[in-house]
Amino acid sequence: MRFLIACLLLTCIFSQAQTPPPQQPFQASAPLSWELKNARWFDGQKLQRGNLYVENGVFVAKKPAKVNRKMDLRNQQVLINPLAEAHNHNLQTAWGWGQYADKYIDDGVFYAAMLCGDPAGVAPVRPLAAKPAAPDTSFVTACITSPDGYPLAAVLPEPSAEAAAAQDQIVLVDSPEQARQQWPTIKARGGNWLRLVLAHSERPELRQQPAMFGRLGLRPDTAAELTRLAHADGRHVVAHVETAADFDAALAAGIDVIAHLPGYANTLDEAPEVFALSEAAAAQAARQHAAVITTTAATALFKLDTTALAALREVQRANLGRLQAAGVQLLIGSDVFIGTARAELHALDELGLDHATLLRLATHDTPRALFPGRKLGCFEPGCEASFLLLGGDPLADLAQVDMPLLRVKQGRLLTRLADVAASSAQVSTSTADPPKAKKKSGKARASAKAKRH
Q: Model confidence over 292-305: pLDDT tens digits?
C-alpha cells in the first residue's frame, strides 16, 4: 500500500465525486513545489513517461530541495496541459464573469479570448482575471461592423438605425473613408486586437432589405482599410465570417485570424456550397499564416432539422480537411455562451479529428496563440507548470478530459476546498516513499549487540 497516490489526490477525487456547492468558488494555494513520480504526460503528439518536477511555478529539471507535494502516479493517470477557448463572449462583462468564470476552471480551460467586449464593460473584469484562480483572459474591445451589421440585432432592444447610432458598445463604419476618420476613436478603445465582421459580403442587395438589419457586416474594401490601419499601428485583426466568400474577403484584406469555420451556421437557409472552401483559399490562408477558429459546437445552437444539419456537418468536415491538408493553423473556440472549449473539443471529435490532433490544438496550439509571449502547453523545464491530472488516457478515451482529478495553475493547486488551498504549502511527505527506519540510540545498539552474543 506504500505506493498509493498521495492523500491530496484522494481528497480531490472524493470532492469531485460530489457536486460542489455553486457558491464555493475556486481558490488557489500558494505556489507549490511538486515531485510527480512515474508520470505520463501528453507532449503534443504522444504520451511520455518519467518524473516531473515543479518549482516557482515552472517545470524544472531536478527535484527541488523542498517538496510540498510528492505523488506517485504509477504510470496510470495522465497529465495534460490546460485547455484554451479562442472564441467566446461570456467573460467580457462582470455579470458574465460571475456566472461562468468558475466553469472555465471546472472544465480545465485556463485560457480564453473574449472577442467583442467594450472598454466600459471589460474594465471591472480585468482585475478579476488577474487573480491566481481565474482563467487567463484576453479581451477585444474594438468590435467593428457596418451600421446595419451583426451583432446589432442581438444587442439592441429595438433593431433600428437610430438605436444602432446611439449605442457605443460596437463601432459602426460604413466606408474606407469613415475607417480613416474613426481610427483615433478606435485606437482609444485599447487592446492589441480588432474584431471585424464580414457577413454575406458577396450579397450587397441584402442591405436594401429591412429584415436583414443587424445581420450583415462590413464591405470588403472597408475591412481591408481597417486591417491596413491596424497593422500599421502594430495591432492584429480577427474577422467574423459566415460564408466562403467572406473567408476569401478576409484573406484579401490581410487579416490575421478568421473566427468561424464557414458553415458553422446557415441563418439564411442557403445552399451548402455557399460555405464550401476552395483548395485555393485554404492554400492562401496557409501562405498568409492566417489561423482559423473552428466554432463548430455553435452549430447545435441553431436547432436545424436532421437533413439540414447533416448537410452542414458534411461541409464542415470538408472544410476542416482542406484546411488541415494545406497546413492552416486551427484554433479551438466554441462561441457557445453557456459553454467553453470543452464543447468544441467534442464537436470536432464527432467530425472525425483524431484525439492527438484535438489535444494538441486545445492544450498547445490555442494557448500559445492567445498568449504568444508565454511558455504554455509543454512540460519541459521552463514551461509554466499548469496541468490537469486525468484518470486515464485521453488518446484512447477523450471523455477523460471531462473528469479532471486535479487542476494546477503555475504550480498552484486550484480547489473549491478553502482549507486544502490554505494548508497546501506545508512541507509534506507522501505514501510514494517507503517509511524511513528510525535510527537506534547508542544504548539500543549496545543492547542489540549483547543479545547477538
A: 999 999 999 998 99
Residue with grid cell 467573460, as numbered in its chain: 91
Is CATH 3.20.20.140 what the domain over 83-370 is classified as, yes or no? Answer: yes
Grid cell 475591412 in the structure block, residue: 223
* pTM, entire model: 0.89
Contact 152, 216 (CB under 8 A): no
Burial of residue 31 (CB within 10 Å: 0-12, 13-18, 19+) is buried
Other beta carbons within 10 angstroms of residue 419's beta carbon come to: 10
Domain ranges of the chain: 7-80+384-423, 83-370
Return d(Cα 108, Cα 83) in angstroms, integer: 6
C-alpha to C-alpha distance for 291 and 270, rounded to whole angstroms: 25
**Res. 12 pLDDT band, cuts 50 70 90:** very low
Q: Which of 201, 204, 235 is nearest to 218 (CA)?
A: 201
The pLDDT of 242-266, averaged and rounded, is 97
Which candidate, 285, 365, 276, 278, places its Cα nearest to that of 327? 285
